[in-house]
Amino acid sequence: MSDTQFRHGKKRFYDNSKFPRGFAKSGDFTLAEEEILIQYGDTMLGLEMGDLTPENAEEKHFVKVIENPGKAKTKLERIWLKYIQLARGRKRFHTLNGRNKPDASDDFSEDSVLVEED
């Protein structure tokens, strides 16, 4: 990502509470996305929290995207929005069962089973 004006973070970015094994090993991010988060995540977090002030047009646009996610244009912005959703959003839980409970008429107890005797 050498074509960007975005500053590298002062330190490598990790989220050990939500992604303890790393971003890519979580299955939610590719290796390229993981590398972008590690390199630029510290700066993106600082801009989001207001600890850093934007120094160029790309960083100013990033701050606007945080307030209005529909305006995301760059890969950095889309990856950060994806990170926010996965790290701070609700975790989806998939079960093997459906949501609907079976009807009482579908109950197969010993009383309702007909047994033929020879």
Automatic annotation (TrEMBL):
It comes from Vibrio japonicus. This is Macrodomain Ori protein. InterPro entries: DUF413. Belongs to the MaoP family. Residues 105-118 have a biased composition (Acidic residues). Residues 95-118 are annotated as: Disordered. It holds the Pfam family DUF413. It comes from the Bacteria.
